[in-house]
Amino acid sequence: MKKVYDRKLRFGIIGTGWIAESHVECLKEMEDVEIAAGADLIPGKAEAFFKRYGLEGVHCYPDHKSMMEQEKLDAVCVCTYNTTHAECTIDALEKGIHVILEKPMCVTQKEAEDIIRAEKKSGRVLTLGFQPRLDENMKMIKKIVDSGELGKIYYIQTGGGRRRGIPNSTFIEKSTAGIGALGDIGCYSLDMVLNAVGYPKPLTVSGYTSSYFGPNPKYNNPKDAARFDVDDFAAAFVRLEGDIVLDFRIAWAMHIDTPGDTIIMGTEGALRIPSTECWNGSVGGPMKLYKDVAGAQVEMEIPLCDGEYNSHGVFYSKLRAFIDAIQTGGRAPVPSEQILYNQAIIDAIVRSAALGREVEIQFSDIS
Ligand SMILES: NC(=O)c1ccc[n+]([C@@H]2O[C@H](COP(=O)([O-])OP(=O)(O)OC[C@H]3O[C@@H](n4cnc5c(N)ncnc54)[C@H](O)[C@@H]3O)[C@@H](O)[C@H]2O)c1
């Protein structure tokens, strides 16, 4: 295979917090990558981060702009909190740098559209950090839908969450996260089903958000409760193009073990995916396929894949897929045009919740 670059790709890491660890751990294993630079707004954080990984020659900067001005980079990992995703990604693309951007894509639909405009102008690869897609069990969901066994899909129920599992750090304030459970784990549930059914365009959303747990010291550490100002629960009824409706709910905390399994209903069959948080690619148990066979209503269990197929794990695979797309001049493994629809649904849930009524989703011209 002829590679676009016949040398190591020079990578920069923007934001050296928690998720940057998995990026660096994976990139360190790759022979065709050099981790050249890193940036973090918190003084000394990037330096300490790379030292921990034994990467002492990495040049460190106090923000992404100065890093990209002073370094010749081929690619960056945008590992910042949600509210700086758009700025960092657009700045990198404008400098002609390939980008792997962590999930959620950003905070608003408008930011997502601005990112895609910059991507189109740049001609560079932009992919999104949705690693669950690379899990064999998750891939199976799409394979089942694509096989036609379910017929025409008309109803999807998805979401999930935790009885108690409110994160902390930069996830719980509007100034850094922008959105709460919706952006943290909601985007994964949406991606799981929308990717399976071919990412139909979202049309309207009736959404609800609440935060009865995060700010309450009965359920959250008092210090975190005092600064908590994002959603910890969201629900929505979404109409998608092609006469499909999507019933969605997500929670960081609730008084029940799960708000339900994921189900995909079609005219020829239905699929049940036991409740999952998705982020690590896990499904909550064997999936079940329901069909009529020779006039009998039957249930079939889909055996779980055991994970040996992918010894490096989904986090490694997501970075590898990004690099392979750069080196082959190929398509982004998780394309932004798809995740625009994911972000638009999240944005519409927030808008609808604020207005207390259904809202339409309009897309601006990003050609
Ligand atoms: N794919 C996954 O499984 C996964 C898991 C966890 C987090 N995430 C996502 O990764 C992102 C970061 O999460 P985290 O837990 O690492 O957060 P974090 O708060 O630990 O780290 C983010 C870092 O980015 C830095 N930063 C912000 N803006 C910057 C800028 N302009 N230039 C340089 N540095 C900047 C902050 O100072 C902070 O140190 C979030 O969007 C989150 O949703 C993804």
Shape: globular
Kindly state the number of beta strands.
15
Which CATH top level class of the largest domain fits? Alpha Beta
Number of domains: 2
Spell out which ligands are present. nicotinamide-adenine-dinucleotide
User: Measured on Cα atoms, how large is the radius of gyration?
Assistant: 21 Å
Main pleated sheet: 9 strands, mixed
Structural class call reads alpha/beta
Q: What integer is the average pLDDT?
A: 95
Task: Summarize this structure briefly.
By secondary structure, the protein is of the alpha/beta class. It has helices spanning 18-28, 45-52, 64-70, 85-94, 109-122, 136-147, 181-196, 222-227, 313-328, 336-355, and strands spanning 9-14, 33-39, 59-61, 75-78, 98-101, 126-128, 153-161, 202-210, 233-240, 244-251, 262-266, 269-273, 287-293, 296-302, 359-360. It has a 9-stranded mixed beta sheet with strand order 14-13-12-11-7-10-9-8-15.
Description:
This protein is α/β, with parallel strands linked by helices and 367 residues long. The strands form two sheets. The chain has a nine-stranded mixed beta sheet with strand order 14-13-12-11-7-10-9-8-15. The protein has a six-stranded parallel beta sheet with strand order 3-2-1-4-5-6, with helices on both faces. Helix 1 crosses helix 9. The two termini are 31 Å apart. Nicotinamide-adenine-dinucleotide binds next to helix 1.
